[in-house]
Amino acid sequence: ETETVELFRMKGRQVFDVRGRYDVTGPDGERIGSLEKVFGISLVRSTWRIYGANDELVGTAQERSMPVALLRRAIDLVPYGEFIPILFQFTIRVDGHEVGELRRPVGFRDRYILELEGDPDRRLDRRVAIALAIALDALQSR
């Protein structure tokens, strides 16, 4: 009820785009960053590029474990596979260095944990990082 301050908005650049580019803007409409799904690599291991306000590449987010990534895809083919809980864990890198992670622990409710302890200088805008968490929840299969 008291959460009335808008932090950001996220909007897709196109209705259908296999790469999926999403702009993250502040409440005033000024772009603070963007997110882009890397199509080719993501067929096997989901990978996202994170851009800053001026479209400069800031970092990436990639599924941590290749075996878990493959298992997630295989379970999607099983009838009622969506009811099988699977670990969801992404490594976030800025300038090639691991700065944090985003994970969904196994459980009955959707719960995500975003940690950015390796980025004390805040090179990654926290609003863009939160938008990434929302994008992964809404746009990733499983």
Index terms:
142 residues, 32% strand, alpha+beta, eight-stranded antiparallel β-sheet, 8 strands, 20% helix
Query: Approximately what portion of the residues adopt beta-strand conformation?
Result: 25-35%
* End-to-end C-alpha gap: 29 Å
Strand arrangement within the widest β-sheet reads: 1-2-3-4-5-6-7-8
Structural class: alpha+beta
Order of helices and strands: EEEHEEHEEEH
Percent of residues in helices: 10-25%
Q: Given the C-alpha coordinates, what overall shape results? A: globular
By DSSP (H or I, 4+ residues per run), the number of helices equals: 3
Poorly predicted residue ranges = none
Q: What is the number of E strands?
A: 8
Report the C-alpha radius of gyration, rounded: 15 Å
The major pleated sheet works out as: 8 strands, antiparallel
Average residue-wise pLDDT: 85
Per-chain topology:
Blueprint: E1 9-12, E2 21-25, E3 31-37, H1 39-42, E4 47-51, E5 57-63, H2 66-75, E6 88-94, E7 97-104, E8 113-115, H3 126-139
Antiparallel strand pairs: 1-2, 2-3, 3-4, 4-5, 5-6, 6-7, 7-8
